[in-house]
User: What shape does this take?
Amino acid sequence: MLDTDADICRRVWVRCDACGPDASCGPCSQSRICDRHWCYLLGIEGRRLFVQCRDCHGRWWHDTGFGVGDRPARLDEVPAPTGVSAPAR
Ligand SMILES: [Zn+2]
Ligand SMILES: [Zn+2]
Assistant: This one.
């Protein structure tokens, strides 16, 4: 089920382990932004993003690899999540 926080305006291009990369998809195989394979951005906590796959609806925390306290400026416009805990599966 799609998370209530899922918003098509907030997307992030990370790979879903469950779905995996689509070798037959041109943009994905070239590590480019793809129209079909992206995840919803549900929340941000420090350098981690809480994302949901649009295909399998799986949710997980994605580590962006940014240093602790380092946040890309353009993420500041997204309100900080409140009460976001580990995904219940
Ligand atoms: Zn793709
Ligand atoms: Zn998936």
